[in-house]
Amino acid sequence: MKRTKWNDQDLVAQQETEVHRHKSFVDVQNTCPLCNSQLTIRIESYLENYTLREEATCPKCQVLARVKDHKMH
Ligand SMILES: [Zn+2]
User: Fold this and answer.
1) What is the number of other CB atoms lying within 10 angstroms of the CB of residue 39?
2) Burial of 57: CB neighbours in 10 Å, binned 0-12, 13-18, 19+
3) pLDDT of residue 4
4) Which of 43, 42, 35 is nearest to 60 (CA)?
5) What is the DSSP letter of 48?
């Protein structure tokens, strides 16, 4: 059963890489359209259906500026 554990770790590592890559990509365009301040990007991953959800919120206005779902296959 050791093999199964290794595979799980690989999967997690792979997903973390995806998240980081994605983060650096969205950093370019993540300013608030209302107050022009830096948005906070939150990435949530749902392992069960291979989806990444990206939420961009403005810490000043408290608005959810963008929600995106990404399927990863
Ligand atoms: Zn704002």
Assistant:
1) 23
2) middle
3) 54
4) 35
5) T
**pLDDT, tens digit (0-9, with 9 covering 90-100), for 12-67:** 666 666 666 665 554 556 888 889 999 998 988 888 888 999 999 999 999 888 88
Whole-number Å distance, alpha carbon 20 to ligand 1 midpoint, is 24
Task: Kindly give the distance from the C-alpha atom of residue 30 to the centroid of ligand 1, in angstroms, as a whole number.
Answer: 11
Residue 1 vs residues 7, 8, 9, 67: alpha-carbon distances, Å: 10, 11, 13, 38
Compute the distance from residue 7 Cα to the ligand 1 centre, in Å.
41
Distance 15 CA to ligand 1 centre (A): 30
